[in-house]
Amino acid sequence: MNTLTKTEDRTSANGTRQVSYVSPAANIWETTDGYALQAEMPGVSKDGLEITVENNELTIVGRRSDEALKGDVVYRESRAWDYKRVFELDPSIDAAKITAKIEQGVLTLTLPKAEAVKPRKITIS
Hints:
The chain has 125 residues and is mainly β. The chain has one domain: Immunoglobulin-like. The chain has strands at 5-12, 15-22, 26-30, 34-40, 49-54, 57-62, 82-88, 99-103, 106-112. The protein has a five-stranded mixed beta sheet, with no helix packed on it. A four-stranded antiparallel beta sheet has the order 3-4-9-8, with no helix packed on it. A hairpin with a 2-residue loop joins strand 5 (49-54) and strand 6 (57-62).
């Protein structure tokens, strides 16, 4: 897992606090109809995901809760940090048709190309 962390200030009703995020490892590839993006987000469920598109930026936030451990912690490498990653979208992507699914901690986004940029065959009369 990628351990690159970033911190940002988050303002709430209780005041400002710093929130740390882990940048999840991601793979992107082109398909015939667009692009696919996979991001590793172990411990994140469908309810913990927030995916937004604004000003040609795709933002993925995955929140996971700290699991209650029974007993005293002797050693721990896993942290309950949230995930966050921001991508700049290619203008050819149809942002209104982006779909997402998460299975076993892997988020998969389908980013279809707009119809206007897809190659098309012209029939001859």
